[in-house]
Amino acid sequence: MPKYHIWTIGCQMNFADSRRAGEELARLGYTEVKRPQDADLILLNTCVVRQSAEDKVVGRLTSLQGLKRRKPEILLALMGCFVDEIPALIVAHLSGDALLRHGGNLAASFLGT
Questions:
Q1: Would you say 113 and 105 are in contact if contact means Cβ atoms under 8 Å apart?
Q2: Which of 16, 33, 44, 91 is close enough to 38 for a disulfide, judged by CB 3.0 to 4.6 Å?
Q3: Residues β-bridged to residue 63
Q4: What is the CATH number of the domain that holds 77?
């Protein structure tokens, strides 16, 4: 059974969106795990409203790069306002993994279904 981990920063809407993303992933047969290193899919729900949130997103992306190098099969996916605001930076950190723009379909964007 595939596993996912969601990391969320930002407003109440982001936390609600993460909950909905988790529900959709569960419907697709994914199981939630607490540690990103145990996941097949790591979903970062991001924010850029404050500089401190943006810095945390960049820090989190950077910290996950070592895990991604050790386990290249892990899908690292992003959603939230960071994706719409700073796409060039994301592309530099993601190396081709999935981005979900506002209003996008989680399953189609990340999982190809």
A1: no
A2: 33
A3: none
A4: 3.40.50.12160
Better-scored residue on pLDDT, 10 or 35 = 35
Strands 99-100 and 41-46: unpaired
In a domain, 112, yes or no: no
According to the 3-state scheme, what is the secondary structure of the chain? CCEEEEEECCCHHHHHHHHHHHHHHHHCCCEECCCHHHCCEEEEEECCCCHHHHHHHHHHHHHHHHHHHHCCCCEEEEEEHHHHHCHHHHHHHHCCCCEECCCCCHHHHHHCC
pLDDT in tens, 24-74: 999 999 999 999 999 999 998 887 777 887 788 788 888 888 898 899 899
Q: How many domains would you assign to the chain?
A: 1
Is residue 109 assigned to a domain?
no
